[in-house]
Amino acid sequence: MTPWVLRLVLANVAMFFLQSASPIVTELFAFVPAAGWYRPWTFVTYMFLHGGFGHIFFNMLSLFFFGPRLEDRLGGKHFLGLYFASGIMGALLSIPFTPNVYIIGASGAVFGVMLGFAWFWPREQMLIWGILPIESRIMVIIMTAMALFGGFTGGGGVAHYAHLGGFLGGFVYLKLLSRNAGMARFRRATQPKAPRIETTASALDRWRRIKRDDLHEVNRDELDRILDKISAEGMGGLTPGEREFLDRFSTRH
Fold it and tell me: 167-176 pLDDT, tens per residue?
């Protein structure tokens, strides 16, 4: 588990125990859209409260599953930016639609993390209930449709507009991030370039010398996948993003 994912999980679990010990915690830190401007701290604090074990369990499970790879890709600073931007947008979008409802939960922030995962790995296969394969981008589309339907039909006690706001906040954050200088350099680096002086054989040899044991487990899996792809299809089958991945880690080592 990456550093900020671990800290967020621990913070949520700690607040869950505080809620169990003292119900006043929920009263103080839950977000009520109509009163949000008088209780501005609740735009953030509501993300760390949950309504029961199942609520926190599935939110933290999703954060554990999708968060580490995304944090490793974005870096801690931008991962946190995405997380909180998604959660705060979830609160903002709830204001016009559910003004007098108590809203708690990390779902809006976690939905932003899910969107971020699908943004970078849109064709990654997910297993719903451990058996049903689905691409991450399709999963986000389905969850958006479900949240829209739930919002229009009443929702059954679920903060569907906070979920939609999480997706919207994540999208806006990633779009803005893609325009800054650092991400612009990244995008340019992943565009096809004129052939370099380095030969194909020397590049492949450099990539194969990447020290797997020094990588995070998600990056080890990605390295193995790309090297297997090279073995099956040759280097011509690599995408610009896959080449950038190999170059980035071979430069480190």
Answer: 999 999 999 9
CB atoms within 10 A of CB 120: 14
Q: The domain 3-179: what is its CATH number? A: 1.20.1540.10
Q: Where are the domains of the chain?
A: 3-179, 193-252
74 touches 116 (CB < 8 A): yes
Q: Does 160 qualify as catalytic in the annotation?
A: no
- Which of 86, 94, 107, 136 is an active site residue? 107
CA–CA dist 55, 163 (Å, integer): 14
Mean per-residue pLDDT, 68-89: 95
Asked about 163 being catalytic, the answer comes back as yes
State the Cα–Cα distance between residues 77 and 67, nearest whole angstrom.
13
Q: What is the pLDDT of residue 187?
A: 57
User: Is the model's pLDDT at 71 over the cut of 70?
Assistant: yes
